Recover the amino acids of this structure.
């Protein structure tokens, strides 16, 4: 299935109630054959309004880290576990993740990245391990079949707690190293 075909399915999806309250599907953005994919949690208000992931305050901070370590945003693919915004930016419910995860699987198949980076605890617990603890396990690498995976702090968490920013920079520099290795 192509990314366009998967997006069309998301646009009309009613597998959970969020399909009825969203403004736009927030499907994914970037290089459709990216070697590096970032997966966040769920769209916020600005993402819901624009249909583009990580364009709000958290996204702007993510852009700064990408720039700082020398990864062009256009080279990577960015998406979320949920394609529709949960009201008031609450955490996704497990049943919403269950309803939506098939779209992410299809997206991963279509893009075929070599490295998948989870942005935050919610994505890491869903994609790496339910036991994942972000303060303990951020920046660790997990080899999962064809993919190298890791998780970093969610940029929103860095906006709330500046003390995490140094760890984030270190993790992002490691991601850039891994990225350089896989695109060589
Ligand atoms: N937070 C996320 O997890 N995803 C977005 O797209 C925006 C904010």
């Amino acid at each position: 299935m192509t990314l366009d075909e998967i997006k069309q399915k998301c646009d009309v999806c009613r597998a959970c109630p969020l399909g009825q309250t969203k403004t736009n599907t927030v499907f994914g953005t970037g290089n459709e054959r990216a070697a590096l994919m970032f997966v966040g949690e769920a769209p916020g208000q600005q993402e819901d309004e624009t249909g583009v992931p990580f364009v709000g305050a958290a996204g702007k901070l993510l852009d700064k880290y990408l720039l700082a370590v020398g990864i062009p945003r256009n080279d990577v693919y960015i998406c979320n576990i949920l394609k529709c915004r949960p009201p008031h930016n609450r955490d996704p419910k497990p049943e919403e993740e269950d309803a939506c995860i098939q779209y992410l699987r299809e997206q991963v198949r279509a893009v075929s990245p070599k490295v998948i980076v989870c942005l935050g605890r919610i994505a890491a617990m869903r994609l790496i391990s339910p036991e994942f603890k972000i303060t303990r396990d951020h920046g660790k690498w997990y080899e999962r079949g064809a993919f190298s995976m890791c998780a970093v702090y969610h940029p929103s968490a860095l906006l709330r707690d500046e003390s995490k920013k140094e760890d984030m920079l270190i993790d992002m520099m490691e991601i850039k190293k891994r990225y350089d290795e896989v695109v060589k």
Summary: DSSP finds nine helices and six strands in the chain. The chain has a mean pLDDT of 97.
